[in-house]
Amino acid sequence: MTQDHTTGPDAAPENPAPWRPSRTVAVVLAGGTGTRLGLGIPKQLLKIAGKPIIEHTLAVFEAAPEIDEIIVLMAPGHVADAQQIVEKAGFRKVTKVIEGGDTRNATTRIALDAVGEEDCNILFHDAVRPLVSSRIVRECVNALWTYCAVDVAIPSADTIIQVDENDCITDIPVRSSLRRGQTPQAFRSGTIREAYRHAEGDPNFAATDDCGVVLRYLPDTPIKVIDGSDENIKVTHPVDVHLADKLFQLAAAQPPRLADHRSYREELTGRTMVVFGGSYGIGHDLAELASRYGAQVFPFSRSSTGTHVERPEDVEAALKTAFEATGRIDHVVVTAGILERGALAEMDEETMDRLLQVNFVGPVTVARQALPYLQQTKGQLLLYTSSSYTRGRARYALYSATKAALVNLTQALADEWAEDGVRVNCINPERTATPMRTRAFGEEPEHTLLSAEAVAQASLDVLISELTGQVIDVRRAPGEPAQAVPGQATPTEAAPAVVG
User: How confident is the model over 43-60, as a mean pLDDT?
Assistant: First the structure.
């Protein structure tokens, strides 16, 4: 069990003996029926960003090193649905999928029985909060070294009013002392068990959350509050479905960075990489970097090899060349693209067709042709978008539209190809110093642009990671030293980058 014993400066309660939990268990509460969403299925089974909500939630706890075990409390009649999701996703930490109770408190009692009598950490989390972060999970577990109960909350941006039965205001509490509660809620097992034992003797017992049970029945027990996040929303109403879907689309993943030059060489030696758009800019720098680390790289482009990504025969020939030379293809990268500015109504047919063909039809064509090769190696397809994918811009209508389409293509293909073990990701660099940008905007101050080398390094990190279906932001960090791999003579010294 991996846990960090660090604590904050807060005054800690006195403990008679060190806390020695046997393990840390995440209890995912999935007992909702979705009535407020007007659905015929529990809301936790609704798909967002291509997967059931509960699958997104379980994936966070599965990936968290602080979590040893996961128990799922499912809505009555849908245990088999949850079990199927767990099996398909390969969640190894899930030990039980059982039926929950008819209330939140009844479900907690069932969960405590399922956990067993050993001293352990228990985190209760709503299944329909799929955007909980690894940071929140880590801080909850860490806080249990000092506190017996932990809540997650965020400040209220709105003024809270209290009303009577006639909807007239009776009080307006001071906003600075108010928080909006989230989950997980974390406890030392003995504490939450003791609170519920006291509650059993109260005929008027009713609580909407577990920290409320501790607060009421163990009033001398401090409940530590850690910061939640605005993204950790609970999918309850129809609008929440759309908000969560958009938050997933905009979420930026962070690939792991290897320690040194030798680690990169160990990862890439013997691999084959095909780069469409490999003559200039990001594609060229990625090809050079991967070659330096031992990969066999095959760059193709219109200018150097006469390869047009929108032509199926050209793509097929390029992939065949790489495969016949090495017997495998591990990574396929599409950096090819064109940027044409102008009002849509004034753009000629030839320019519009070229934009659509190169920027969207090309990546689609490459994806279709590359799949059989990537299936053999469990490899990865890497595409590129731009910051304009989040909102179309005047005089960039088609360019912005194609970049938004690539994000959707990435997420859709990652879902489609998951069973084949093929990963698909998308790099979203901020304004980057490339020949394409220079042609469109002329010379710009170097300190305002991200270097192509920095984007190439971030791209390489994504290619050797296990990420899939992710949009990875790469941003310049003004004033910070260049990010280089320790022990490596790197080309990324031209400009630092923040990946996240």
Answer: 91
Query: At CA 10, angle to CA 7 and CA 15, rounded to 5?
Result: 70
CATH of the domain spanning 24-235: 3.90.550.10
178-191: pLDDT as tens digits:
999 999 999 999 99
pLDDT for the residue numbered 443? 61
Q: Are 354 and 374 in contact (CB under 8 A)?
A: no
Conformation bin of residue 364: beta by default, left when phi > 0, alpha when psi is -120 to 50: alpha
Q: Can you give the residue ranges of every domain in the chain? A: 24-235, 261-499
Q: Give the Cα separation of 157 and 179 in Å (integer).
A: 9
Cα dihedral across residues 126, 129, 130, 132: positive or negative: negative
- Domain 261-499: top CATH class: alpha beta
Q: Which two structure tokens, joined as six digits, stand for 152?
A: 């997650």
CA distance 281 to 175: 51
Q: Is the confidence at residue 46, as pLDDT, over 60?
A: yes
C-alpha pair distances (Å), 197 with each of 203, 218, 377: 13, 11, 55
- How far, in Å, CA of 440 to CA of 432, rounded? 12
